[in-house]
Every structure is written in structure tokens, then in C-alpha cells.
Amino acid sequence: MSDLSRPEGPRIMAVANQKGGVGKTTTAINLAAALVEQGMRVLVVDLDPQGNASTGLGVEAVDRELTTYDLLMDDAPLDDVIQKSSFDGLYIIPATVDLSSADIELMSNEKRSFLLHDALRQTAMDKFGWDYVLIDCPPSLNLLTVNAMVAAHSVLVPLQSEFFALEGLSQLMLTIREVRQTANAGLRIEGVIMTMFDRRNNLSQHVEKDARDNLGDLVFKTVIPRNVRVSEAPSYAVPVLSYDTNSQGATAYRALAKELLSNHNKLAA
Ligand code: ADP
Ligand code: MG
């Protein structure tokens, strides 16, 4: 059954936006956990040298012996780079600051845009039976982010409910178009998710309306509220879904997972 629903292996999603602090890592971690709760087998790939997804999922710096860097640059075997996270059933390939040099080292490699793509399509991936792979991108449109877009089926774009939120989007869309033309014709936009939404704030409402007017159905119906529990969870090294399971943030990420799954027709009737 699960094999029929994903004949070509897992659905790989790059969580990308070149702006920092818009909720990429928060969305990667918590959407991944919410998908696990729905019975999916999920892997997070930390592709940001800051390693925030690794920290937020309980992989401490001392335990990051083999990382995304080793996967990309040294052909490290998947078995050695994939680790259990602090959330039961969720796995992660962690990152360290090493990864920042990969961006430069990659320049001279003729397969520079395809390293992550090739790494995630090793036959060794099959035995894990992943349903979803979520790639947490750095806040930049550099070669690492291009690697994520080349490896991915789709791009999930967190958009902070703030002034100027839409401004950076045209550059992001341009990069997606370039990747389509050169390396990954099938790359789709999974959707735009409004993050840190404050219902009492007119500005949030305004930005949401703007996004829906401009982007239409690309914007998820689910909106992620600004919720202090979401921002506290990483310091306990767990997703908000286990830190405060009934919080507004946890509830919103569960709704996002369900919306995504129903978009993919993966929910059982
Ligand atoms: P990015 O990965 O895009 O740089 P983060 O996911 O790290 O962004 O989020 C930036 C900051 O905002 C973090 O401190 C995070 O805890 C906080 N944050 C993200 N989403 C929410 C939310 N829904 N409510 C409250 N704080 C949030
Ligand atoms: Mg981040």
C-alpha cells in the first residue's frame, strides 16, 4: 500500500526562503513531527550551517560526528549520517558549521548542484521507506539551497506575517525558475505557509490578504499563529508537538500536516 502511494520513493520538500528568521527551521521541525504523528516515515535534512534544526531536534553538537557535510562532500554512507531525533519516529541528518565551507568548496565541483540529489537517491535510501524528506535550507539562495531545490520535488515557503514579507519572493521564484530550466524541470511550489501570524494585529491580516491576493491557492489555508510555546520548544530540544502538545502552535502544525497530506491524497478515506 505505502509502496503504491509513492512509486518513486519519498516526497522531498525543500523548506526555503532566503530571509532569515521567517520560520523555516520551526516549520521543518514541527511539520516533520506532525507528519510522523500521522503515521508517515519522515527524515529531516539539516542543510543550514547554523544547525538549528539539529539542536531543535535534540542532536547536540558533540553528537554530530557525521553530518550533511560528510554526506555531500565525502560520500558518507546514509546509515552513518542518519540519526534518531528527540521526537519518537523522526530522523535527522544533522549539520554543523562545517557546512558553510561546502558552499565554496562546491564551486569547483562539476556536479556541484546535484550532490544532495544524488545522495538522497542512493539505493540505500529505499530500505528506510521514507514517505517524506524535509530539507531545512539556509537563509540564502546559495549553492546549498540550489542543491536542495535540485534534490526536491517541491519547495515549501514559510512567509512571516510581517511588512515586506512578499518582497523577497520574486527573487526566490526566479531561483526556482532557473533550477527548473537547468536541473529539475518538475520542481513544484508545495505552498506558502503564513507563519508567526497575530490575529489581533492588523498588519498580519493585511499581509495575509496580500499573499492570498497575489499567490492565490499557493497559500495554505492553515496559518501558523505566533505562539510563545513554539519559540520555547527548541531550548528543550524538542518539537512544540511534544513540548506542549495542546498549544496553539502544535495544533496549527498538525493542521498543516493534514492539509498537506490531503493535498497529496495520502490520507486514508
Ligand atoms: P528561520 O529558520 O527561517 O531562520 P526560525 O524557524 O529559526 O526561522 O524562526 C525564527 C525565530 O522565530 C525563532 O526564534 C523561532 O523560535 C521563532 N518562531 C518561529 N515561528 C514562531 C511562532 N509561530 N511563534 C513564535 N515564535 C516563532
Ligand atoms: Mg533556520
TrEMBL record:
Gene3D superfamilies: P-loop containing nucleotide triphosphate hydrolases (3.40.50.300). Residues 11-189 form the AAA domain. InterPro entries: AAA_dom (IPR025669), DNA_Partitioning_ATPase (IPR050678), P-loop_NTPase (IPR027417). Transmembrane segments: none annotated. It comes from the Bacteria. This is AAA family ATPase. The lineage of its organism: Bacteria, Pseudomonadati, Pseudomonadota, Alphaproteobacteria, Rhodobacterales.
